[in-house]
Specification:
The protein is of the alpha+beta class and about 325 residues long. The chain has a domain at about 85-305: Beta-Lactamase. The protein has helices at about 20-30, 30-45, 55, 60-115, 130-155, 195, 205-215, 225-230, 240, 285-305, and strands at about 1-5, 10, 160-170, 175-185, 200, 220, 250-260, 265-275. An 8-stranded antiparallel beta sheet has the order 1-2-6-7-8-3-4-5, with helices on both faces. A hairpin with a 5-residue loop joins strand 3 (about 160-170) and strand 4. The longest helix has about 55 residues, at about 60-115. The protein is elongated.
Length: about 325
């Protein structure tokens, strides 16, 4: 369930109880049933404007009443079947999309293990730049699949996706700093974003919000990005200034896993929309599922590259 601050951001731990939210959620619960009964009984009486001698002034055509009632019932049944068909088709499309995503993850991991198994030659340190490009290519393709999945799930054709991965960046004064660099974007986002993209430090914006306040868990819903920026819950970069119309609302989930030393937030998954009400709490668990599946793939791929001595340098600005 959500925890909320007046900063344009809502944090959801899970979406299991999201059906209880709103007026319909209230009416679907036991207390809603009881309230409906209590309010319904006194409203069942004859309205004040109804004629007191109605029975003496009107007759009821039983045949016509049955015919009209049957017609209304038939129309309602047809509408229910149309709704059921659309819902079933959408459900099957969403499931097919999930299978396509898992299939893609499996193939990419298998291909990486094939390349580094020795069958294509012994892995060398000089292979690292090529493997870094492969990681970025995979991130772009998975961002497209994630976008397509959430478009099916939400019915929102403006949805896009981006992926950031954590990497140690060297500082000018010496030492390193953990930062999150964009490695993948869906094709609908402006390609000029790459030239002005900036890494986000672990102690600023979304990384800080997740790591320091929410233990790297859950999903963040950004409904008012301007307000979130003002409160420090979102780090405004050059791309937010230049391409502000591309992202109005968004869901953000951490990519958690083993970073070589401990369990940590190894990346961030963004699903964005141009609409003011692009997302619902019912989509939280879908977001968490995709984020966990992607994190598992990155752990397997980066862990394998580290073990064979071809650690990719994701700080290269040319990627």
């Amino acid at each position: 369930m959500p925890t909320k601050k007046d900063i344009g951001v809502t944090h959801y731990v899970d979406g299991y109880n999201s059906w209880k939210l709103g007026i319909l959620g209230f009416l679907a619960q036991l207390r809603g049933h009881v309230t409906s009964i209590i309010l319904g009984i006194p409203l069942m009486g004859t309205p004040f404007w109804w004629p007191s001698d109605w029975s003496s002034q009107a007759t009821v055509n039983i045949g016509g009443l049955i015919g009209r009632s049957s017609l209304v019932g038939l129309l309602m049944c047809i509408l229910c079947f149309i709704y059921l068909r659309r819902r079933s088709v959408r459900s099957l499309a969403v499931k097919a999309s999930l299978h396509d995503m898992s299939h893609h993850l499996r193939d990419q991991i298998s291909e990486l293990f094939r390349r580094t198994s020795g069958s294509c030659g012994k892995p060398k340190k000089s292979d690292a730049p090529a493997e870094a490009r492969n990681i970025v290519s995979f991130a772009h393709s998975f961002a497209d699949k994630t976008r397509d999945h959430f478009r099916l799930l939400t019915g929102d054709s403006t949805i896009e996706c981006a992926i950031r991965l954590a990497h140690q960046y060297p500082l000018s004064g010496g030492g390193n700093k953990l930062m999150y660099r964009t490695v993948g974007r869906s094709s609908g986002l402006n390609p000029k974003r790459k030239a002005s993209s900036q890494p986000i430090p672990f102690d600023s914006g979304i990384p800080k919000f997740f790591r320091s306040e929410h233990g790297g868990q859950g999903v963040l819903f950004y409904s008012e990005i301007t307000k979130a920026i003002a409160q420090g819950a979102f780090l405004k970069t050059a791309n937010e200034e230049t391409f502000s119309e591309e992202i109005v609302t968004m869901m953000v989930a951490p990519l958690n896993g083993w970073d070589g030393n401990s369990n940590d937030m190894i990346g961030i998954l963004y699903v964005t929309s141009r609409r003011k009400k692009g997302f619902k709490p019912t989509q939280v668990d879908s977001m968490k599922f995709v984020a966990d599946a992607l994190a598992g793939a990155f752990i397997a791929m980066l862990g394998r590259l580290h073990s064979v001595g071809t650690k990719p340098d994701l700080t290269d600005p040319n990627l």
